[in-house]
Specification:
Elements lengths: L1 E3 L9 H11 L3 E3 L8 H10 L20 E5 L13 H12 L3 E5 L4 H7 L6 E4 L4 H7 L6 E3 H9 L2 H8 L10 E6 L10 H14 L4 E6 L12 E4 L7 H13 L3 E4 H8 L3 H4 L4 H8 L2
Length: 288
């Protein structure tokens, strides 16, 4: 987009504008930062010329409607930050409120009581992935259920592709290497999910000799070909463009990629239930 500012002082003649358009071969907008001349047209041009992949899909807004109740299960354990909720939980609450819906937050121990206290069943239950088993046990089968991590896998990347990545788990051999990636850097806890729990779960499926590497923050290896599988966090700290770039790099090098929440649901045997709110991803799961 070519922008001619200060058009409150002088607007170029039509012939001049035509020559500029012919030269730059892009949309041309005359604006003024003083009196807002052309600003609305500039906004429209920015939207019209933006890359659709750079626009993040909704987080939960298409799964609820105004007045719906969404129950969020947020465990408070030693890995939880003191005095606040983690970012995925914060962002999900905000998305629910922006949808004119109702967010009810509870811990996994109180979920049964919370659901029993409602006059109507919730439109959806969203849980921390590590509490899946407890939450499934207390959530009626007809109530949609998923996790924060799976919601973010859909918003930040390609959920269907990450579901396909799960099938690589069962095919891992003792010679394979797995890369575990987190979009942020944080202080590692004693039983850290990325450093301890996920390797433990994968070894339980594929054997004790599986090798692991880790990357966090902006560090993402250029050479991914040595890995059989990449397990990525929910990417709440990354924008969609960065996450799609990471997925594309894996795809180019023939490496499967999946997500924390998907892996945890798979290990716990409840992945089909966790994907019920997402028909395309559910279909992808049925094909392997």
């Amino acid at each position: 987009i070519c922008v001619l500012n200060k058009c409150d002082q002088e607007i170029p003649e039509n012939l001049t504008l035509a020559r500029i358009r012919q030269t730059v071969k892009t949309p041309l907008v005359c604006t003024s930062a003083i009196n807002n001349l052309g600003i609305e047209e500039l906004r429209k041009q920015i939207i019209a010329n933006s890359n659709p992949e750079d626009i993040e899909p909704t987080l939960i807004e298409d799964l609820i409607k105004p007045g719906d109740i969404a129950v969020l299960v947020t465990p408070i354990d030693k890995s939880a930050p003191k005095g606040r909720l983690i970012l995925p939980q914060q962002q999900t609450i905000r998305a629910i409120l922006d949808s004119e819906a109702i967010a009810i937050i509870t811990k996994e121990q109180e979920l049964k009581l919370t659901l029993r206290s409602l006059n109507l069943p919730p439109a959806i239950v969203i849980t921390d992935s590590q509490a899946f088993q407890q939450v499934v046990a207390h959530t009626p089968p007809d109530v949609p259920l998923t996790s924060f991590s799976i919601l973010f896998a859909r918003q930040k990347g390609d959920l269907t592709e990450m579901v396909r990545g799960i099938k690589r788990l069962e095919q891992l051999t003792t010679k394979d290497k797995v890369l575990i990636v987190e979009g942020c850097t944080h202080h590692r806890q004693e039983d850290d999910i990325g450093k301890v729990k996920i390797p433990r779960w994968i070894r339980r499926i594929a054997g004790e000799k599986i090798e692991f590497s880790w990357a966090s923050g902006t560090r993402y290896p250029e050479d991914l070909s040595q890995y059989a599988l990449i397990v990525h966090c929910g990417a709440c700290m990354l924008n969609r463009r960065e996450m799609l770039y990471r997925m594309a790099k894996a795809r180019e090098q023939g490496v499967f990629i999946t997500n924390y929440g998907l892996l945890i649901a798979y290990v716990m045997g409840i992945l089909p239930r966790a994907l019920q709110p997402f028909p395309a991803a559910s279909l992808a799961l049925q094909t392997f």
